[in-house]
Each structure stands twice: as C-alpha cells, then as structure tokens.
Design a protein that fits this description.
mainly alpha; Endonuclease III, domain 1; 9 helices; about 45% helix; DNA-3mA_glycosylase; hydrolase; EC 3.2.2.20
Length: about 210
C-alpha cells in the first residue's frame, strides 16, 4: 500500500501536496531540494521556527510578507534589528506576530554570523547529514525526529540558536535536502540528487508525520 495520490498530470504525490496549488508547487519545486547557501538556509531555519504549532500552508502563504518584513532574510541585516524593528514586526499582520519567534529570528541571525568563524551555517548544518535516509511508502513510516535532528538541535542551541528543537530541525533537514522523506512511490523521490533511488524494504518506521505540519 502507498499513500500517494495521482494527480491530473499523472504525477504521484502525498495527499498533503496533492490538492492545494501552492503546496503542490512547493512540493514539486522546492521541498527536499538541497539548500547550500547561508541566505537560503537561514530563511528555511527561520520559517520552520515560525511554523512551530501552525500549518506549513499558513507559513507558505505568508512567505512573501515574511521576506519583506525580514529584509529577505539577510542575516547581516536581521542581526542588526532593534526595538523599533521588533515593534514593526509585531504590528505586521502579514506575518506571524509572535514575540518569542521574532526575537528568536533576530538572535538566530546573530548566531549565524558568529558561526562564520567556524565554517558557517551551511557546513555546520550539513555536517549532521545522516549516512542513510528513510524510504517510506506510507505517511505512517515517515519519522518526525531522528538521532541526527536531536544532535543538530543540541549543537545549534549550544551555539546560541533558539526555536531549533529536534522536530523543527528534522523538518529543516527534510526541506533542505539533508534527508529524503518523499514517499517511495512519489514522482519526487530521489529528485534532489543527494540520495540514490530507494531500496525496497529500507523504510524507517515511525509513528507519524511526513508533511510540513
């Protein structure tokens, strides 16, 4: 059995990416593709933090407003945000107005700059890429955390990052291509170029998850 849905275009996708045009486009063009630049990875990390407790569809619809509000997620600019910027952001109905998440994004920008002395955010995050990736056939087989996401979370917190829990970091690893949790029967499986085609029977069991929640 597989949880993919075959669309009008003949392509198989998981249910969460099969109906909403915005989510489908994101799934087909972005989700799971490798992100190897500081700017892009900082944006993904920031948006995953804002997504905590919300649906990814909500964040995706607000992404244009987020990019405007956070200077296109340039960490050098965000790191200099002051109290006036905080007030501006908390008054911006186009984004998620959560003080803790706003403060975390600014702090994480500062921590991103600090990491440059040790190779930078990209090398740091990608150093936690696992040796193997799950090969799920159903949504129930897609993990929501992993030993690597737990380790990445701990390491980032030690470097001053916040809102980087293991589940959030696992979602980041999925979105940025460090792992491939596309369902085996999805037309996107193996599309990142990071991982080879799955081996039947190599799925990693888990309790739930698999979609940007």
């Amino acid at each position: 059995m597989s949880d993919v849905v075959v669309g009008d275009d003949g392509s198989a996708r998981p249910a969460w990416a099969a109906t909403d045009p915005l989510m489908r486009d994101y799934y087909d063009t972005e989700w799971g593709m490798p992100v190897r630049d500081e700017h892009g990875l900082f944006e993904r990390l920031s948006l995953e933090a804002f997504q905590s407790g919300l649906s990814w569809a909500t964040i995706l619809r607000k992404r244009p407003a987020f990019r405007v509000a956070f200077a296109d997620f340039d960490p050098e600019i965000v790191a200099r945000f002051d109290d006036d910027d905080r007030a501006r952001l908390l008054a911006d109905a186009g984004i998620v107005r959560n003080r803790l998440k706003v403060d975390a994004t600014i702090r994480n920008a500062q921590a991103t700059l600090d990491l440059r002395a040790d190779g930078g955010l990209v090398d740091f995050v990608w150093s936690f890429q696992p040796a193997e990736t799950p090969a799920p056939r159903t949504m129930a087989e897609v993990p929501t955390t992993s030993p690597e996401s737990v380790a990445l979370s701990k390491a980032l917190k030690a470097r001053g990052f916040t809102f980087v829990g293991p589940t959030t970091m696992h979602a980041l690893m999925e979105a940025a291509g460090l792992i491939d949790t596309h369902l085996v029967d999805s037309h996107r499986r193996g599309s990142s170029g990071v991982w080879p085609a799955p081996t039947v029977g190599s799925a990693t069991p888990a309790t739930d998850g698999g979609a940007p929640s």
